[in-house]
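User: Please predict the structure of the protein below. I'd like the answer in structure-token form so I can feed it into my own downstream comparison script.

Assistant: Understood. Taking the following sequence of 433 residues as input:
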Amino acid sequence: MRIVMIGAGYVGLVSAACFADFGHDVTCVDKDSEKIAALNQYRIPIFEPDLDKLVESGVNSGRLRFGIDLSDISDADAVFIAVGTPSRRGDGHADLSYVHAAAREIAGLLDGFTLIVTKSTVPVGTGDEVERIIQETNPEANFAVAANPEFLREGAAIRDFQHPDRIVVGTDDERAKKVMGQIYRPLYLNQAPILYTSRRTAELIKYAANAFLATKITFINEIADLAERVGADVQDVARGIGLDNRIGAKFLHAGPGYGGSCFPKDTRALSKTALDYGVQLRVVEATLTVNEARKRTMSRKVAGVLDNDIRGKTIAVLGLTFKPDTDDMREAPSIALIAGLLDFGAKVRAHDPVGMEQAKKELSDIEYCDDPYACARGADALVIVTEWRQFRALNLERIRTDMATPVIVDLRNIYRPEDVRSAGFKYESIGRA
């Protein structure tokens, strides 16, 4: 199949590389000429494990190309729209300007039947609008519009694409179903379930999935607060309820709140969409409120461990990205934490295995260190914010010797309290007495 992918961001680039790996002929188009030039030299603008190898393999095989215009679109079987849909400034709605612009550009280039697929995360009804724009721009166009939302976890995106839980395709057009079946045919040996729905249903599935997972994270975070007060262990609580098949163990890890490119903006957009239709999603609204408050309170938690006397003291922060195995800093809990510490008058130094270049765009008033030990040296407290593997087996004796005050605040519960305390530290974690 001949595929054009519009957008070389996270979703577009991963999808294009994986489709090429399936054996399809893929052209990935983006307006950012510098990004395209870098990709043609195998320089990947985002950090995602093994993506660089997949891109290089696709380019070397001739099945994956990068460009800045849509000249190849007339020969395409399917054109995927994978552009950004950030939160619109001021009201929280998804900004669909890039999606609409792509639809207008596509319309004038169509020749013969072409399937247009929205891969971006978009509100319910976006596919209808894309269809209207194309029909209005080119009344003679022969096309169909389908929704095919992505379900990729940053840090595990390639595995998720190649071994999906489900493939959701929103269309009632039989020609579209045939094309999508051919595109995903290489996965049939893996028995990847394709769920065909209406277009609006597919769009809502994506938002509902992300909102539910965000709610699950927020729920266990609130249970963690209660566990601390009553002397319980939230990790045991999570195991106890996670073994129930109706609940499941995933996304029950207490921490400093969720961040990233999806959960914050998608929960906001879902809530706004619901209000447009006269429906109030109170659970989703509460999730948004609680999560934002939680990220802000983490700095107060650190201050409390130091008896609320942190002015002029040095706080070492390990982990800046919103999760491990990515360099994504979008709405990362570390941003609110560090901003709060700076407001309290603390000095902050930080280390992250891959995210420091991105972090410098968000956090300029802190010191960046090359490794965890340099970060901890002379610090009055060490705060673990992101659960990178590199932080799970630190030399605690070395760190205790180098720190001004042996205090660890573990916001991801990656250590056993008894191990850290026996190493001579004052230790605080999440949801554990």
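That's the full token string. The mean pLDDT is 95.
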